[in-house]
Amino acid sequence: MDFSEKARALVQEQILDWDLVGRNYEGLKNVKVKTFDFGDFNIDVQYNPERIVSSVAKVDEQSILERSCFLCKDNLPKLQRWIPYGIDYIILVNPFPIFPEHLTIANINHVDQRILQNFETMVELAAHLSKFVIYYNGPKCGASAPDHLHFQAGIKGFIPVENDLSSEICCREVRTIDGVKVSHWPEYQRGIITLTSNNKANLIAVFNKIYNQLEIARHDDPEPMLNIIASFDRKTWTIHIFPRTEHRPRQFYNTGDSQILLSPASVDMGGLLVTPREEDFLKITEEDVIDIFEQVCFDTQSVLTLINKL
User: Splitting the chain (310 residues) into consecutive groups of 10 residues, what average pLDDT does each group show?
Assistant: First the structure.
């Protein structure tokens, strides 16, 4: 069953019934966007002040203990509605959108943000919300609720990596494993591993191999640092995996004029950088973008080395 139309209807209902959602989705029409041209691809920067809460979220253990979880059903705003998804999840409208149709899919249980045992759910969500891209932010890679398992979804067509997938210059196949095409993105400013397959079981098996390789390098963390974007089209899944080296770049922690309040997550990894402060939107340069990706992402050679170990 495709939940896309139900989810889209929920967005429209909440826009009408919940003033906060109505204002924020109307505000999306006026967000500013600028584009950096890298020749074979573009990187967009969006000024979106409503994303300030997510961008500066305190995700250290003490801060999490001191606040109520905003994804637990008992703590949801009274005006928030949802669609049940399976027996463990609910589909919610994200009240602080990046996309004109932006969802959060939250587990009904208060369990930690982890992907290994839940990747199959993500793959299924991509098929069941086929008009959306599904994305996962790791607990140290942009998740503002690392203590509560959730995914997000945005209507297709807004993240540059979606459109760049068809470019052989940007995305190049490296090998095939059990029918799963494994590609990388040379000269794309950030290391990406892309899996393409119409076989769910084989896709999950290859993802698990990648996860295990990443875990070897980050064995002391709750899980390897990564972001994931998944989509489904014409009976085929496309999974973009963004291995990470840092949570936030040094510009985030700088003070004064050298500060850029940018906390990269999946959407940023996909080529749409979200800045909640206008001053950062105005001053960020192409050189800043390159430097930020160099700090927080794997480089091309590291990705190729990982792929060759599979």
Answer: 94 97 91 94 92 60 79 96 97 95 97 97 98 96 93 96 91 96 95 98 98 84 94 97 96 94 95 94 96 96 94
Q: Is the Cβ–Cβ distance between 96 and 54 less than 8 Å?
A: yes
DSSP-assigned beta bridge partners for residue 228: 136, 241
Name all domains of the chain by residue range, CATH numbers in brackets.
Answer: 4-308 (3.30.428.70)
SS3 state at 301: helix
Q: Hey, what are 291's tokens? A: 């430097």
* C-alpha pair distances (Å), 17 with each of 23, 28, 144, 210: 11, 18, 25, 43
Which of left, alpha, beta for 101 (phi over 0: left; psi -120 to 50: alpha)? beta
Sheet holding 193-197, edge to edge: 82-85, 89-93, 102-107, 150-155, 132-137, 226-233, 236-243, 193-197, 180-184, 172-177
